[in-house]
Amino acid sequence: MGKVKMSKYRNLLLCVAAASVVAGPALAGKFGLGRPALPEEIAAWDLDIAPDGTGLPVGSGSVLDGEETFAEFCASCHGDFAEGVDNWPKLAGGADTLADKDPLKTVGSYWPYLSTSFDYIRRSMPFGNAQSLTDDQVYEITAYILYSNDLVDEDFVLSNENFMEVELPNAQGFILDDRDTTEAHFWTEPCMENCKDVVEITMRAAVLDVTPEDETAKAEAPAVVEAAATPEPAPEPEPAPEPVAEVAALDEALVKKGEKVFKKCKACHQVGEKAKNKTGPILNGIIGAPIGQVEGFKYSKAMKALGEEGQVWDDENLTAFLTKPKKFLKKTKMSFAGLKKEADITAVTEYLKSVGK
Amino acid sequence: MSNKPKGLTPSRRAFLKGAAAVGGSMAGGGAALAASPDPLIVEKQPWAQGTGDGVDASPYGLPIQYEGDVVRRNVEWLTADTISSINFTPIHALDGTITPQGCAFERHHSGAIDMRKEDFRLMINGLVDTPLVFSYADLERFPRENRTFFLECAANTGMEWAGAQLNGAQFTHGMIHNMEYSGVSLRSLLEEAGIKPEGKWVYVEGADASSNGRSIPLEKALDDCMIAFKANGEALRKEHGYPARLVVPGWEGNMWVKWIRRIEVTDQPIESREETSKYTDTLEDGTSRKWTWVMDAKSVVTSPSPQSPIKHGHGPLVITGLAWSGRGAITRVDVSKDGGKTWETARLANPGQPMALTRFYLDTTWTGEEMLLQSRAMDETGYVQPTKAMLRETRGENSIYHNNCIQTWWIKSNGEGENVEVS
């Protein structure tokens, strides 16, 4: 008996000892660390906007101005009508689809609060150049997105004054996490034997076949060469790409104009000394360069193939590509819809000539 | 999520190659008698005669070349671009519970940024007595904690709602990692600033261009959240938020804000993009659940599985996998070989730790029979991992997030595995 007691006592002691050894730090009030944040610092970072409008800046923007601003900063990924390009988010449409097999979730069909759109656009957009828009531009874009969703008329002007009057269609479409009650039957004693009569395979992943192949096997796979949209047969391998006529002086005014047009490209492409490959490749010295050869960028197979057959980014190819990227090369990864104005293409080409290697 | 492009068949070729290499042993089983002496034993091997690499051959060591396929992988058709995207931890090839940082999955909204410790600033503002700014060096002077937690993306297994889709545990369950974090409690930082009585929430925000931000109830923030700067003993990797990230134990990964720069005490949730348009779970009738923060109990067999087929002969077979729960510790894992008709309880490698991965093993004998392999986790609250049918019954198929269903691998008589759904 005595022995038993003894060991119990010892176990208890051990437990106590162990507990104090693994305990977290005992916090003793304040440590006097850090420094007070200055009002300017808080103002620079505290940009979030709550559903009740707390944090909204003074400003306004119309649907009409928004159409232009949207085309300039957003349409390359989200489409001219906020309908989305490729896998980039669709911002409009999808009304009454939430209970469908494939719901389309957009600002109009799904987002509960308009504050969220404003907040997100102001803090995080455009992709690749966040926080570059003025507050009025953000109002304009937000107004245009409302318009694209048929929620306001084309003469609508959104401002901090009328912001809270806009109620989004799905504002009441959310409930708080109710798993503890609706899924209370998941807390149960599990079955161990004869849990079902029949077990049949009802679906197989191999049938759907969307799993990425591993790299080694990929290399063995036959290379699929997509035909380029350019109709002429593959030219004889040229001895060397035609050098760009660097002798010709650049039209400085045109370069300036092109720099402005290039803003549309900046979300994905970088130029200059510190440029890195982003969504798109670095464009330093791209004029006259072989197609699909920027080091370290993962091109579509189709784009690579063009380069391998000796094609270069000359005026003709670049103009065709920038006019309608997907027409020039169906399988290009570039989701940009294209530049509508010929003058913009000429200008941006001139600008790209000015950014050498 | 619909079936997008036509991919190539899973590593069937790679698998068959592997099978051919061990073809001899596939037929026999157990300790077969060697017909002739093994040259690896009877002949002198170069590594046993010459010398190997010197100590500084690789000042920061990488896995040996033969393990080069144990890497994160991306499913390209899932997202528009790798800068705002996700990849997957190779859980099919790992063992134990700690995920090495170099192969722990990444999820960025605006790319992994480069930030020096010297440029790091963490602001606490809002409903506090004194808004404060901390430097990285300040963080290191608060009392420190070491705690191990899993981080699971709420979208893990999200592609499987409508049916079996991706053929491999890495792709179906690889949006998860488990690391030992060193850092300071969020509570100590908040108390340093002094929380005003009106404060009910914190809004946490990262320094990258996405300024990913989430609202967290103050109660959770003061309970067990951490600002971590080390993982598995070394500095966080850039892709995981170097120099410091938020740790929100048991809750969805999106809340674990990387490159954390600001914590605002508020009286209401901000309802940011990431907590309204994303990370909300649409039910069958079109209404959506929000604030579904906690990750339900879940498990998966990591081997054998489609990317980790049985390559040995009949006889002893180790079935292994991972289990975890955002509500606490895993207490039990059952394994079924017949698609859920009968179950046997697996062996936990170690007692479950709260909100951390638990490794399980089922030491068994395989004689080439087909198996419909499943695992089922239970946690300390008594929650039992549900079947996909049970989940669909309450949630429909459009939730995207929080799919913690029981996974089935069809292991064929040649040892190959496939992701399937069963009745």
UniProtKB/TrEMBL annotation, chain A:
This protein's record includes keyword Cell membrane: no
Sequence ranges assigned to domain Cytochrome c in this UniProt record: 61-149, 253-356
Compositionally biased residues, Low complexity: 219-231
Sorted UniProt keywords: Electron transport, Heme, Iron, Metal-binding, Signal, Transport
Superkingdom in the source lineage: Bacteria
Aminoacyl-tRNA synthetase among keywords: no
Molecular functions per Gene Ontology: electron transfer activity; heme binding; metal ion binding
Signal peptide: 1-28
Pfam families linked: Cytochrom_C (PF00034)
Segments for region (Disordered): 217-241
This protein's name: Cytochrome c2
Organism (species): Thalassovita autumnalis
From TrEMBL, chain B:
Signal peptide segment: 1-34
Moybdenum cofactor oxidoreductase dimerisation domain residues: 289-407
The keyword Endoplasmic reticulum belongs to this UniProt entry's keyword annotation: no
Cofactor(s) listed in the protein's UniProt record: Mo-molybdopterin
Keyword Metal-binding: yes
Top-level taxon of origin: Bacteria
BP GO terms, sorted: sulfur compound metabolic process
TM region(s), chain numbering: none
Matches recorded under PROSITE patterns: TAT
GO molecular function: heme binding; molybdenum ion binding; molybdopterin cofactor binding; sulfite oxidase activity
SUPFAM superfamilies: E set domains (SSF81296), Oxidoreductase molybdopterin-binding domain (SSF56524)
Keywords from the UniProt entry: Metal-binding, Molybdenum, Oxidoreductase, Signal
Oxidoreductase molybdopterin-binding domain span: 115-271
Name of protein: TMAO/DMSO reductase
